[in-house]
Amino acid sequence: MTLLLVTLAGTATMISPTVAAAAEKTVTFASEEDSYVSQAGPGKTHHTVTWLSVCTTPCDGANASERGAYMRFTVKDVPDNAVNVKMTLDVQSVRTTDTTLEVRPVTGEWTADTLTFDNRPAVGAVITTHKGLTAGGTAKLDVSSAFTGNGAYDFALTSPSGAHGVLHSSRATAGQGPKLSISYDTQAATPSGPLPFAMPSLAALRGSERKVFAHYFTPYPLSLNNKAGADDYYTKHYLTPTGENGKHAAYGGLLRDRPVPRGVLSGDWQLADMKKEIQTAAAAGLDGFTVDVLSLTSAHWDRLQVLIKAAEAVDPGFKIVLMPDMTSLKTDAATLAASMAKLAASKSVYRLADKRLVISPFKAEGQSAAWWQNFMKIMKDTHGITVAFVPVFLNFPSNAAAFAPISYGFSNWGNRSPAGQSGIASNVAKAHGMDKIWMQPVSVQDERPNQSIYDEANNTENLRLTWEKAISEDADWIQLTTWNDFSEGTQFAPSVHNGGAYLDISSYYLTWLKTGKAPAIVRDTLYLTHRTQFAAARPTSGTQTRFMAPRPGTSTPRDTVEVLSFLTRDATVKASIGGAQKTYAGQAGLQAKTFPLAYGENKASVGAVTVTSPWQVKKDFAVQDLQYHAVSSGRK
Q: Where do runs of H (alpha helix) occur along 23-110?
């Protein structure tokens, strides 16, 4: 397949997926009130004349003669989910001049019958400009950036240069006065849901040979003790420095984020939670979970069995890949084989089409290739199960040759920073050169308070880069690392701080991977990501004494707000970064635009589509938190 890669070094990046064709509707409104003011007659009204004047001073050779026009429109009947909105102010000229017009929003109160130069209302910054007027011609001024939906729009026309411009007012011959036109796409606005594209059916996605799994970490299910969010274990013990008798106080608490809280459930709440997680993952297009098998007893083993039971109940097509964790499992091959065989009795545990059971151990090099070969022999001889071995390495190049004779495929745990992704192409090529499949890790970020380390992900750059390289380098399988390891801050699962944004973005790339082409963008969607504190800042209160530092070799830490836009066509994007207003030319397709981080609130909009981050950037805080927060315009 052909993939246009993103250039990641600059502040704005774009790729060009398919943009859906759309039927455009236009509504036009005549001005309800309009008039002009003149410095030459500072107390005079002009609400009865058939023209509007706009002029800088000196005007017509006279000093103290500035003139400006004011007009009001009421917009209605534009649907709330309109996309690709373009708003145009049309004014018709009485004569030909070289006048430069400036359009500004009116921020003060006014009425046409009392408007004078002396009481003229305050106006805002210039929205757009237009130079040159032609007698009988219409000047079309793009004021799309001012669109906020239905309601009143007041504009002022001023001039910084050129001759005296004279325009028709609403009292001129019918149809010659100012008009405000709003065009928008109806076909693109029709589909519902949070995504910028139309998700293919689950059956169509699962028909692809390419598979996408997410790494499930049993220590962090949706709930640990079936209590409401304010009183549950996450809030009381993991998110606070005083939790678990203060054992996490030095680094400010074990976690910085958590699963979305829920209320108290009756009945088998653990099974209900697992069902919900599977439903969420399946709705995003995932084929299953690679489940970290931390132990063969205890709560983690019990949760794994509940997860398998949940898959059987809600979606038999959702597969569980067994991933023995060789950093924690200290057992012999026969014991491990017996446990894996027990789990393999479920139809939800993943097997290839030829019935081979997929075993994909984490840090496979924790045991030798010979040890694993013996494990597979036991599985076959004792339990009648043939294994398709897909080891996940911490160091793939050093172990590939030794493990090649016993492996169906390869993977590695990967990195969480753009600076660490240069080896993806060579890894895939090496695996394919050995006639093995490759499972590519795709990641968001990594933040570990209890290990005093973090990776710089550059907002969504690492996420996009790992997905794009997986597609361009022809990876066979994907492992999202991770679904829910909140202790490492790598979660894709909907959480308090990401709201499902990272999963939504991944659904777009997942569809691209499985269908072989970028999905058509059918609705404008914005994703906003930023930290809530500067990378080098330290808490101004609290008791934290151990702090996270950048992992050696990670990307240089940066302080940025990113607007990631999926647009059906070119449009003006507005952003407010810490209260400072920004605008830029948004391009059809997927585009990332970054701005320097600033204290305060962050938001962005394109037409009527808006996204506002609920997390403010603060100077004063009690706990260091270097994860990126994310919010989507598609999820309210």
A: none
DSSP strand pairing (589-596 vs 12-15): antiparallel
pLDDT in tens, 573-585: 999 999 999 999 9
Tell me the pTM.
Answer: 0.74
By three-state DSSP, how is residue 574 classified? strand
Element spanning 502, H or E: helix 501-515
The DSSP bridge pattern shows strands 602-606 and 571-577 to be antiparallel
Span 247-288, pLDDT tens digits: 999 999 999 999 999 999 999 999 999 999 999 999 999 999
* DSSP code, position 189: T
**pLDDT band of 80, cuts 50, 70, 90:** low
DSSP track, 468-482: HHHHHTT-SEEEES-
Cβ atoms of 617 and 600 within 8 Å: the answer is: yes
Q: How confident is the model at residue 394 (pLDDT cuts 50, 70, 90)?
A: very high
555 burial via Cβ count (<10 Å: 0-12, 13-18, 19+): buried
Selection from 564, 585, 560, 591 nearest residue 573 by Cα: 585
Q: Which of 116, 106, 114, 117 is nearest to 157 (CA)?
A: 106
- Alpha-carbon radius of gyration of the chain: 30
- Helices 298-314 and 269-283, packing angle to 10 deg: 60
Query: Is the separation of the CB atoms in 560 and 459 below 8 Å?
Result: yes
